[in-house]
Structures are given as C-alpha cells and as structure tokens.
Amino acid sequence: MRCKLIHSLPLLLAVAGCAAPQSNGAAYEQALSQWQGAPEDTLRARWGKPFAEEPAGNAKWLTYVVSNGAVPPPTMSFSIGGFGFGGGRTSVGGGVGVTTPVGQPTAVTCTTRFLVENGKVSTWTFEGPGCGAS
C-alpha cells in the first residue's frame, strides 16, 4: 500500500495544481470581461469619473485608479533582558522591548484603463498590486 501511495503522489499533486484557485490577476481579468462592448455611459455610471482621459485616434482611454488601503511598514524590534547563574544561585531578570515601524505605509492601488471606441468598451489593461486583491 505504501508503495502505491508514493507512486500516486506526483499524480495527486498534478491534479491538485489544476484545481488550485485562479490568481487574483486572472480573477480580475475575468471580472473586467463583463465590460466588453458595454456603453461608455454605463461604465461611467458604475466606475465614476475617470482619473484621466486620453485621446487615442478615434477612441479614448479612460483611466481609473482605485486604492485598496495600505500595507503597514515593516517593524524592527529592540529588547534588553537577561538571566544569569552565579555563586550557586540562579537569578532571573526582566526585559524591555520596543517595536517601531521602519518607513511609511505602502499604498495598495490598481490602475485600470478602458479603451472606448465608437462609444463602447473594446479592451482594457490593468496593473498594480491591488488589482483583484480581496
């Protein structure tokens, strides 16, 4: 039985890999696909005023920047304390610890751009660590 389990392990891992949930980027891409062919007015009603509008020939790019909070900065800890053995006696001491942030919080944003041609969304792009983050 043990031998069969060992030989089956690579197959089980391969199947588990196929069943793994999709990445945040893939999930966000799938969510954006609903906008394919949507009217510009519908997009603006749902997403609001774009951060920027850029002409692209007979089309235009609408850029939206969404902030999904911030990641706290890393911390550094300092501590002082001790204990000792001496003269046949054991002594135990206390300690003092200080934790302090190092740097500033990092914003988690997602920049999404929709290309609008003939009044309808034709394609999109996105970038940033906040795209599709839950």
Written account of the structure:
- There is one protein chain.
- The chain is rod-shaped.
- The strands form 2 sheets. A 4-stranded antiparallel β-sheet has the order 1-2-5-6.
- It is built from 3 helices and 6 strands.
- It has a domain at 23-78 and 98-134: Beta-lactamase Inhibitory Protein, Chain:B, domain 1 (2-Layer Sandwich), CATH 3.30.1450.
- The chain has helices at 2-18, 24-32, 40-47; strands spanning 52-56, 59-71, 75-86, 89-101, 106-117, 120-127.
- With 134 residues, it is of the alpha+beta class.
- The longest helix is centred in the N-terminal third of the chain and has 17 residues, at 2-18.
- 25% of the residues lie in helices and 47% in strands.
- β1 and β2 (59-71) form a beta hairpin.
- Output the structural class: alpha+beta
Q: How is the biggest beta sheet arranged?
A: 4 strands, antiparallel
- Give the CATH class of the domain at 23-78 and 98-134: Alpha Beta
- Average pLDDT works out at 76
Structure summary, number of beta strands: 6
Descriptive terms for the model:
134 residues; alpha+beta; Beta-lactamase Inhibitory Protein, Chain:B, domain 1; two-stranded antiparallel sheet; 25% helix; disordered N terminus
Task: Please render the helix and strand layout as text.
Blueprint lengths: L1 H17 L5 H9 L7 H8 L4 E5 L2 E13 L3 E12 L2 E13 L4 E12 L2 E8 L7
Antiparallel strand pairs: 1-2, 2-5, 3-4, 5-6
Summarize the structure.
By secondary structure, the protein is of the alpha+beta class.
